[in-house]
Design a protein that fits this description.
Layout (H helix, E strand, L loop, with lengths): L9 E7 L17 H9 L1 E3 L2 E2 L5 H10 L3 H4 L20 H7 L3 E6 L9 H8 L3 E4 L3 H16 L5 E7 L40 H30 L6 E7 L14 H4 E2 L1 E4 L9 E3 L3 E2 L3 H9 L14 H4 L10 E7 L3 E8 L3 E6 L34 E5 L17 H17 L12 H10 L28
Parallel strand pairs: 1-6, 1-7, 2-10, 3-11, 4-5, 4-6
Antiparallel strand pairs: 2-9, 3-8, 7-9, 12-13, 13-14, 14-15
Helix pairs in contact: 6-7
């Protein structure tokens, strides 16, 4: 069906934390995710979508603006003292759609802009209404209610729904020094067995933790099922574009907070019966979640008035028309728990990572003093070993990215080509890392704390005071 013969759809965009592609329909055979598997069977599955960043806020900021984290201002987490934020001129998808006549509502997780109260965040991002917070059951309740309200109006709606699960959650059942996936409301799930990902050692403690993760995914999937059932009950499914995705990979060692595939791969399922996006079709094309905004604006025939988007529309792919995917996708990390700047380029065959600090081999995303899962191979002591400057992996021969061939003469031409491509991307998109280290919001607050009292002593190094800083409070070059 052509764009001219299809009315503007309702858009229901569902997303969650820390899932990667860990669904039954995407090859995780011991995960029970029947509702998302059903969505995949009814719609279209994009099998090779990657996040722009392996952490929550930067990836979501790209998903909802179509721009790189180092360009939109969110180079780290947006909550608490991390305090990264979208630049004032950035345009969120909700604001674009609201200007185009959509009613817009946010329910659940909002992690793409600095945390504020619901009224402020709605105004900041372009939502008519925002109700943040809540675990999956509460989010599903609120979404069911919202669908009933929105179905009664004459205009199309954009409903953005974020689930916290399967993020790690503290709970009374956790052993000392451990944060698992259960909180106080989820049960582990090993009904279909437990499959430890190949980049982790298969040990009893790992199996215990993966069973918890599987239970959290099943819990979130059940909430998705309630929402999709309500969409059917209201008679909206045919004319609604449903998208399900996540921010990045699993919260396990060598996944989240790393630029290896387990950290950047994301599930991407969609269904839009009125346009023929149905039938369980699967597409393999290198895509990035930065491409979602331009695809949606292309579908709707609207133009954003904000900064130019960096992504590319994959609408022709969805419509079954000729489509040439990109030769490579790019990913980045600058800050998460600490400053650990890295950039990577991935093709169908190779992955090249450049590390800009001597941080530990990989950042630990388990939020636990005592890790139950351990990475195989690679860095034997990830908390003490440092990054090499450049890593290179042959994904055909080594899909788990355990054998670094950056210094292998047989791969010299590949290394040269990919480092060149990465440099050109960083240069052309204005990546501040090329100019030097990036300072975060806390740095500027700390300098301000030193100089709040009149008569503070001058710097002993002769460095300029905060009034001469070359960066603003988000770390952007002035």
């Amino acid at each position: 069906m052509t764009a001219s013969s299809t009315p503007r759809p309702h858009i229901l965009l569902l997303h969650c934390h820390d899932l990667g592609r860990h669904l039954h329909c995407l090859g995780a055979s011991t995960v029970r995710s029947p509702h998302l598997d059903g969505l995949a069977a009814q719609g279209v599955v994009l099998e090779d979508v990657f996040a722009t960043a392996p952490q929550c806020s930067p990836s979501r900021a790209s998903l909802f603006t179509g721009r790189w984290p180092h360009a939109n201002g969110v180079m780290g987490l947006t909550h608490r003292g991390f305090a990264w934020d979208l630049h004032p001129e950035e345009r969120h998808l909700a604001g674009m759609l609201r200007e185009a006549g959509y009613r817009t509502e946010l329910i659940g997780v909002q992690h793409e802009a600095r945390w504020q109260d619901d009224r402020q965040i709605a105004r900041r991002l372009g939502f008519d209404r925002a109700t943040t917070g809540g675990m999956a059951g509460t989010v599903a309740d609120r979404t069911v209610d919202a669908l009933g309200r929105l179905a009664a109006g004459p205009e199309p709606f954009y409903l953005q729904v974020g689930f916290y699960e399967p993020h790690r959650l503290p709970g009374a059942r956790d052993a000392p020094g451990v944060m698992g996936f259960l909180g106080d409301h989820i049960e582990p799930d090993d009904v279909l067995g437990v499959a430890v990902p190949p980049y982790l050692d298969d040990e009893p403690s790992a199996r215990e933790e993966i069973a918890e993760l599987q239970g959290s995914i099943r819990h979130m999937d059940a909430a998705v099922g309630r929402i999709l059932e309500e969409l059917d009950r209201l008679g909206l499914a045919h004319e609604t574009l449903v998208i399900f995705t996540t921010d990045h990979g699993l919260a396990l060692p060598r996944a989240k907070c790393s630029l290896y595939d387990p950290g950047t791969e994301v599930a991407f399922l969609l269904r839009y019966p009125a346009r023929g996006w149905t039938g369980g079709r699967r597409e393999r094309a290198l895509l990035s979640n930065i491409d979602v905004v331009p695809t949606l604006t292309d579908l709707l025939g609207i133009t954003s008035q904000g900064p130019p988007v960096h992504g590319t529309s994959f609408l022709p792919l969805l419509d079954g028309e000729p489509f040439s995917p990109a030769d490579a996708v790019f990913t980045e990390m600058t800050y998460h728990d600490y400053y650990d700047p890295r950039r990577a380029v991935r093709t169908d065959r190779f992955k090249l990572v450049v590390n800009f600090s001597s941080a530990p081999g990989f950042m630990d995303p388990t939020q636990s003093w005592h890790r139950r899962c351990s990475a195989v191979g690679g860095h034997p002591h990830p908390n003490t070993d440092s990054h090499p400057e450049v890593e290179l992996y042959d994904l055909a021969a080594d899909p788990s990215e355990l054998e670094d061939v950056a210094d292998d003469p047989a791969y010299a031409d590949v290394r040269a080509a990919l480092t060149g491509a990465l440099y050109v991307w960083m240069r052309d998109t204005g990546d501040p890392l090329l100019a030097g280290a990036v300072t975060g919001p806390q740095h500027h607050r700390s300098v301000a704390a030193l100089t709040t009292h009149e008569g503070a002593p001058p710097s002993r190094t002769g460095a300029p005071g905060p009034q001469h800083s070359r960066t603003d409070e988000t770390g952007r070059q002035q």
